[in-house]
Amino acid sequence: MGNDYDGLRSWLAKVEKLGELVRVDGASAEQEIGEATDVLQHTLGAPAALFGQVPGYDPSFRVMSNALGTTDRIALALDQPAGLSRLELSEAWATAMRELEPLAARVVTDGPVMANRITGDDIDITAFPAPKWHQRDGGRYIGTGSFDITRDPDEKWVNLGTYRVMVHDRNRLGYYISPGKHGRLQRQKYFDRGEPCPVAMVFGADPLLFLASQAEVPYGVCEYDWVGGLRGEAIDVIEGPVTGLPIPAHAELVVEGFASDTERMLEGPFGEWTGYYASSTRDEPVLTIEAIYHRDDPIIFGAPPGQPPDEFARYRAITRSGMLKDALSRAALPGVRAVWQHECGGGRLLTVVSLLQQYPGHATQALHLAAQLHTAAYTGRYVVVVDEDIDPSNLEEVMWAVCTRSDPATSIDIIHRAWSTPLDPRIAPEDRAKGNFTNSRALIDATRPWEWRNEFPPVNVPDRASRDEANRRWAHLLRK
Questions:
Q1: How far is CA 266 from CA 36, 241, 270, 275, in A?
Q2: Cβ(104)–Cβ(233) under 8 Å?
Q3: Does the chain have fewer CB atoms within 10 Å around its N or its C terminus?
Q4: Taking the model in full, what pTM does it have?
Q5: Which candidate, 151, 135, 153, 133, places its Cα nearest to that of 143?
Q6: Using CA atoms, how far apart are residues 26 and 427, in angstroms rounded to an integer?
Q7: Which SS3 state, helix, strand or coil, does residue 120 take?
Q8: How far is C-alpha 3 from the geometric centre of its chain's CA atoms?
Q9: Strand order in the sheet with 412-419
Q10: What three-state secondary structure class fits 98?
Q11: Cβ neighbours, 10 Å, residue 128
């Protein structure tokens, strides 16, 4: 990266060259930006949108949405070439992760994010056009395509995590973190000591940092170092004047402050990634802002979840599928051909593994690993293992395998009391009241039964390689 890298803006310039950026002036933060975003993210191939001249705000303050709504734009964020299919991009991502060596962030003394510094009585986060993304949201959410920076008080490693952030008033933000997430574990350590938790929140930055912050990067590994290893060049950070936390030098908008367990306010409701308002409203810790930093003409990076499949599901399907394939490889599970965590399940609720069976029980082993490795353990619902001839990213092929190769009475196992979340709409009210945020997982073996796989009726279409060749050879027949 170095001094010629400009974070979100460098990436945005590439998106514009692709012809995949529209600029919209005059849309309201109270309704119209959210409405337009819903249209964009539920339309395949829709462009990224940059909203400017938002009524009631500094006309230079901007909001971006649907930034990662196409495979090519996700590829740009992942430093991969355009033109790859979803599965090819996910495979390339998995390969990149297997080969990376973490590279520590580089501390610099200044950067574009420090162009404007606001402290004391001048602090007013409501001056920025945080949209009301969904009709029933309890307020304006400045943090959707954002990440929070915290440091473990005992182990000293830095975590970047994406958690929703609601605007309460001029200097207070509410933020919700699901149980078990790294940022919540670190925050609780401070609270258990009776201390406030130092936090920096970044509301616009390099899209790869954002994708890393909402991925299942291993515990104890800093996302800055992880991204630096992927890129082969260290991320430039500035030590925050208030908290000492590392802030991306090329970020758009950052706040520093302290979260308290004693000062809480009602947070929510917010339309979450499952497509529901399952988490309702509750008292959540408040971040009191002590400083705001922003670039000239800052861009708030919006990535609000909608009803899947949406932008959120599209980029998560690619990144999380690659990460799960890498995790299965690290667990020494042989025979994995491909993995997909489907968009219709928000990139979490439906996981499919394509497997070349090599021994009795192989499919069952794959099912349990895919359900409980950290990458897929949170809020899963269904895990399906299919044979190597099935494209796991093709939902119709997967369901054909389920319908023809599985037997409901013998091919389905259930895991009880698995890790879920208050965001899960299927948790019963009585369990929710008790704090029992667990769910079950259905494991579906949709492979040819090992014992008589060679006697299973053959399929009536060419093999995958032949079909791919035929598609290339006869593609001209599909042109209008």
A1: 27, 29, 12, 21
A2: no
A3: C
A4: 0.91
A5: 133
A6: 41
A7: helix
A8: 27
A9: 336-341, 350-355, 382-387, 438-446, 412-419
A10: helix
A11: 23
The full set of domains in the chain, from first to last, is 2-301 (2.30.110.10), 331-478 (3.40.1670.10)
Residue 203 DSSP one-character state: S
Q: Please provide the DSSP assignment of 157-180 as one string.
A: -EEEE---EEEEETTEEEE---TT
Helix (DSSP H) and strand (DSSP E) numbers for the chain: 13, 21
55, 31 in Cβ contact below 8 A? no
The DSSP output letter for 104 is -
Token pair in block for residue 362: 């192989």
Does residue 383 contact residue 443 with C-beta atoms inside 8 Å?
yes
Q: Which two tokens stand for residue 7?
A: 């974070």
User: What is the distance of C-alpha 314 from the center of its chain?
Assistant: 9
pLDDT for 270 equals: 96
- pLDDT over 80 at 5, yes or no: no
The tally of CA atoms less than 13 A away on the side-chain side of residue 26 is: 0
User: Residue 198 — φ and ψ, nearest 5°?
Assistant: -70, 135
Q: How many beta carbons lie within 10 A of that of residue 92, not counting itself?
A: 18
Task: Return phi, psi of residue 95, to 5°.
Answer: -65, -45
Contacts of 173 (CB under 8 A, 6+ apart): 125, 142, 143, 165, 166, 167, 201, 255, 257, 286, 287, 289
How many whole angstroms separate alpha carbon 254 and alpha carbon 204? 8
- How far apart are alpha carbons 330 and 337 in whole angstroms? 14
How many alpha carbons fall within 13 Å on the CB side of residue 118? Answer: 21
Collapse the DSSP code of 267 into the 3-class scheme (helix H, G, I; strand E, B; otherwise coil) and give the result.
strand
* 1 confidence band (pLDDT: 50, 70, 90): very low
DSSP 295: -
Q: Are 316 and 378 in contact (CB under 8 A)?
A: no
Smallest CA-to-CA distance from 57 within 304, 268, 305, 294 is with 294
Strands across the sheet with 21-25, in order?
Answer: 21-25, 48-52, 62-65, 299-301
Is there a contact between 272 and 305 (Cβ–Cβ < 8 Å)?
yes
Cβ atoms within 10 Å, residue 275: 16
pLDDT in tens, 69-99: 999 999 999 999 999 999 999 999 888 888 8
User: Residue 480's pLDDT is what?
Assistant: 64
